[in-house]
Amino acid sequence: MKLLVVGGGGREHALADKLRRDAPDAEILVAPGNPGTARLAENVPVRANDLDGLERLARDRDVHLTIVGPEAPLAAGIADRFAAAGLTLFGPTAAAARIEASKAFAKRLMRNASIPTASFRTFEDADAARAYLDAHGAPVVVKASGLAGGKGAFVCATLEEARAALDQILVDERFGDAGETVVIEEFMEGEELSVFFLCDGERAVPLAPSRDHKRLEEGGRGPNTGGMGAYAPVADGTPELVEAVRRTIALPALAALGEAGAPYRGFLYAGLMLTREGPRVVEFNCRLGDPEAQVVLPLTHSSLVEPMLAVARGEGIGDWAPATREGAALTTVLASRGYPVSYSTGLPITLPGGLESDDLRIYHAGTATREGRLVTAGGRVLAVTGLGATLREAAERSREAAERIEFEGKTWRRDIGRTEWSD
Ligand code: AMP
Ligand code: GLY
Fold first, then answer.
1. Residue whose CA is at the smallest distance from ligand 2 atom 4
2. Of 179, 234, 372, 390, which is the most exposed, with the fewest CB atoms less than 10 Å away?
3. How far does the centroid of ligand 2 lie from the alpha carbon of residue 290, in Å?
4. According to the CATH classification, is domain 191-312 in 3.10.20.30?
């Protein structure tokens, strides 16, 4: 069996690690991969957005199954292209991936399917948006509709902040085409939860729910990032809650996409706010979360290869239900100083030997090898995942290892998962 993972971040390292465990004899390629994936698979220097190059690679190397990590190639139609070329790929088509790539599309779909979410309006005209904001007041959430790498959402406590966010999106065009349309949403209060579903077009099977920490600083302060750490299981994420999310959110979304002629096959990420009125959708993503994948995949005991292959072939997953490993997983992200705004790269990383074990996995996110040395190459550099019998044990393992890894400007949160226990 030959498998290809598309992408080169921490999520893709965790995917390659999971595939290596699920299919020990498989040949695994990662495009482009990173120094972490190079240790368990073959990296091929084709970028995740180079659809021509990826199609050629899958054909030339007789890949049996391609799994796409990030959203951009999915939104650009890699699944459509592979299907047209007779290649087997796990991930939604461009039409289905609009559930992430266009927030305006996702919000309308949710409204039409009565899926619980924040009320909203969309605007292309700055004056009309300003007038609406003035009438609505704060708190309010202002978002660029298109793909903005997790940086296009502004939770605004005051009207001034909301006006400034609007100007950045519609006037300064900070997000380019992704900000042609702005979505203004009701502010929802509660704790967040991420639930990933493996979907075959009709069925949606959940993996373990997890929680991401999006703010840069401890205590949930500072700007939103792609995610500074994550953990699973989450006390709030009971089986009853997950079943309610499947029934009232995932299945209606799949039905609506099916009716729209865009059946959804792949991982569907439901980003939820657990409000007093029950779970409501913050956003859908067309892929696994990063860094949530770095805890959810190590906790998934069952092999994902067979269900992904079935879905990629257009077959159903029947009554497949994954077993989850006992215990907990927690990941701490080590980021570059200045992330998420601007940061230097090329700084040497010291990874002490003997740190890694079955219960301590170091997933590479933004690293590179220069002249034989491991150096930083991105905003998020490493995700250090600890596994343990309890969340506390997993947290201690993750933190101790995070402490011992060194690079200049290492920026991290020591409080990932901290709200789950009291002392
Ligand atoms: P998004 O890009 O839509 O996932 O938004 C990024 C982050 O902004 C979310 O993870 C939430 O923390 C926050 N957020 C987004 N929309 C809302 C909302 N309607 N109410 C409260 N917080 C939100
Ligand atoms: N961790 C949030 C995301 O992957 O979108």
1. 289
2. 372
3. 5
4. no
